[in-house]
Amino acid sequence: MEKLPLCSSSEIIKVLETDGFQLGKSKSGSHQSLHKRLPSGRTITTVVILGKREVPRGTLQHILTLAGMPRERFLELLRD
Q: Going from the N-terminus, what domains does the chain have, and what CATH number goes with each?
């Protein structure tokens, strides 16, 4: 399994937006919430730390878990 790369906050947000997430109406201090409505009507919410040049891999993995995004999908969208 390929290791998650060190990514900046803006790279993570760009990938999540590509996958259908939308920025929340306001940011909460140093964090930005992103939301995605599923066809079932359920809403997924995840939070990204802002202004980080390198988000730790464990934090990125937690963001992906909250977003319901497999590691492979994230890596695929990151490369595009």
A: 9-79 (3.30.920.30)
